[in-house]
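User: Okay, second chain of the day. Same drill as before: sequence in, structure tokens out.
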Amino acid sequence: MGTLDKILVAAAVGAAVLATASPASAATRNGVCETGEFCYYFNSNNQGSVSDFTGSVGDYGTRQPSCYDFKGPGTGKGKCVKNAAASVWNRSGKTVRVYFNSNYGGIVYQDFGPGAKGNLKPGLKNQNASHQFGPSSSARVNMSYALYQTGGGYISCGFDGYVHTSGRHEGIDIKRSEGSDVHALVSGQIINVVHGRNGGSGLSTIAIYNASLNKTIIYLHSAPLSSLRVGQQIARGQIIADEAWHGVSSRSAAHTHVEMRPGRQKLAAKSVRDPNLSNPNPNSFWNSQGYNVR
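Assistant: Same drill. Structure tokens below.
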């Protein structure tokens, strides 16, 4: 075969390869949400500029020209994607998980199955830092670990879990050791602080209201930090107290009572010697916030 014939054969083979390329492999980051891609939108309800991806990205970057940006026409075009997306469309064949932190981290995340469209939930809207194609089945952390942000904690009494005490338990008791740092499980504004003291008559209270969720998270028995003030904004994971036995009769029973109450509530619901439950079972709520109830 002559040199010219070899060139013609190679060109024909190349043309055949291009003709049979799949849409997914041919897709590029062009600001159009194509088959095989996962796409962010700058605005809610799949509006505004589009940023399209064909694989996982652990760090979008934060500055032009090196960041992953919104490329499609419309509001937001040219802005970096990190902490700026409001909705998504998953046109890939895999589940894609959006994370609060870079490198597929953090306890707040949201999964989108193949073909799913939707808005990012509160806590992720405009706070997206990475996404992963085909994530593991669960990225939740144990509630007890998140409360102390270290090992050794455990649930000593679950919701409605009284065995030796009369009444209905309205929260979840979590125990590690006296003096352990206690971290906020949900962000919000402090609406009540009672410092209390060790002993059965010295109940302490920290009530943190999250307006977007319309839920109040109440912490009992631990010693609130002296710096806490009503009106203060608290971030998820921020230290708010030290484990103590405020309102508990013995030091060995030191723990933190964590209670989820619908709406804006300054005080915990009554548990001891109260036969009625005022709060709903909180397990699905804690799951939705990225926690295993254990």
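Residues 3-26 have pLDDT under 50 and may be disordered.

User: Thanks, on to the next one.
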